[in-house]
Structures are given as structure tokens and as C-alpha cells.
Amino acid sequence: MKLAKTLATALTTVAIFGFAAAGPSWAEWKPKKTVEFIIPAGTGGGADQMARMIQGVIQKHQLMDQPMVVINKSGGAGAEGFMDVKGSAGNEHKIIITLSNLFTTPLATGVPFSWEDLTPVSMLALDNFVLWVNSSSPYQSAKDYVDAVKAGADSQFKMAGTGSKQEDQIVTVAIEQVAGKKLTYVPFKGGGDVAKQLVGGHIDSTVNNPIEAVSFWQAGNLRPLCVFAASRIEAQGTAKWQDIPTCKEAGVGIEYQMLRGIFMSPGVSQEAVDYYVGLFQKVRETQEWKDFMAKGAFTQTFLSGDEYKKWVADAAVLHKDLMTKAGFIAAN
């Protein structure tokens, strides 16, 4: 229960909401060649879907003169992508979308990387986590599921997630502490693969982000049991997100949300940072973005500048604490 309580209290403090206007100089710098948009995760997952949606919006509305190409670099739980951007000092034509592996990957693997090696640009949103089971499962609520885990043997239930010792497994460990039983955690490269494993009946549950599983839910393949957030999802759309209780409502006292943010290489100019802040603000004004936010049930939080840096710094401290309690820190 200790990790679950830490998740519930600390992340509430970290989730700062605010808006920051683009600096007046953002239009003074513009890309002069193709911009590489790095995804430190596999195809089909939440980060991949968001990055490709953004690329499409920028192209459709001609928000940038130069083309943008999306590149997946998921090796080493995203370390491949982070090290690429870290090693591209001064490259103002390379950006990266981040998730919680910004913090968890260096802690779990010992790879020589920190968020401070990159240049923060902006937070685009906070992503939610949902406890999912196959629609043919007998579990109709989170309490049903947790009670079954409690009644079963250690490692009897299989939970799939993206990567090892990352956010999905952090939430899994919190569930283990609530249930008092071990789960068999099965890692995959991306959230899309994770959801497909659950649809196929190869595992018992996932904590997929909404965008990764919504199509399978709407098709009648999956059932959401609870959302790991402080309040119910307010997103509007065809999916009835507001009907999903919080895990705390369901008696599972765990809360966790994940960063969807943008960083650049180290050593870039403030003018370039301001340009991308302005670019993403324009993306957020489009109907496509609004529809994507509703479909994926995101918490629509935008931060840049010092507010964003402070949020990231606080989140880094939080994740080190969570990873330490879970025993996921790499040995020196």
C-alpha cells in the first residue's frame, strides 16, 4: 500500500495546470530543412499515435514550411531515441516526444541520460491509465479483478505493459501491493501490441492509455474497469469515458498520470524553442487536436518555459522515489 499511497498523493502535487504564451520572438526563427520528430517508443502506442497525428495536422494546415518526418527509436526502452537527441547538440531540426520513460529509462537501465541533457519545449497533455480486461472476462469491476488476484496464486495473473520498469510496471507494482499478490508482468515494445495481446486473450489485463485501447473497447473487445486518476475522465466523444469510475472509487487507491511533452536537443537557441512552442499552440487550436484529445481522454494541460521545467524537475524527483520503492533502480 505504501507505493499506492505515494502514487496517489505525489502525482496530485506534480500535476500543475497552466498556460504559457509563446515568446514574441518565436516567428523570427524557422526551420530551414526537414524536422525529425523522434518517438522513443514503438509503433501503435500513445506517443506514436500523438506524434503522427501532430505531423498530419502540421502538414494539412501548412503550419510549417519544411516537412516533418516521424522516426521511431524504441531500443533500450526508449534510450535509443533519448541518446540520439542528447548527442545532437545544437540541432534545431530535431524534436522528441516524451512519456514517463524520460525518467524511468535512465533510472532502470543506468544509461547515461537525464532530462536535463535535453531542452524542454512544452507539455502537450497528461495521459491517463485505465485498467482493462477482455470483454469476455468475468470481472465487471476493479474490485472483482483485485479480489480474484487476491484469491489466486502468486504470478497466476498476467499483466502486459509497454517496456520493463517503466510506468506500466510501476502501476502494476502498485496493484500488487493493494492485492498482496504478485502479477506476471509481460513487457512489449508499444501500447498497440499490449492491447492486441489482451484482445487475443493471451494475458489477463493491461493498464493501457485510453488512446491505445479505445478502438478495441468500441468494437466490444475490451472492458475498462477503472481509471487511475483523481477524478473521472471528462473527455467528450463517442466513447463514454465519464462512465468509468476512478480506481479509488472502486476501492483501488492508486493514481497516476503520464507526461506527453516535447523536448529538443541541448544547446539550441531560445528563438528555436519559442518557434516550436508557438507551433504546438497552433496545433492545439485545430479541430483535429480537439478531437484527438476527446478520443484519447487526455487531461488537457499545456505548459512551457519555467513552469514546464519546474513540472519536469518535480516529476523526476517523484519517479526516482517511486522507482526506488519498487526496487527498479539499476545497480551501480
Automatic annotation (TrEMBL):
Gene3D superfamilies: Bordetella uptake gene, domain 1, Periplasmic binding protein-like II. It holds the Pfam family TctC. Keywords: Signal. The keyword Secreted does not apply. InterPro entries: BUG (IPR005064), Bug_dom1 (IPR042100). It comes from the Bacteria. Residues 1-27 form the signal peptide. Belongs to the UPF0065 (bug) family. This is Tricarboxylic transport TctC. It comes from Mesorhizobium ventifaucium.
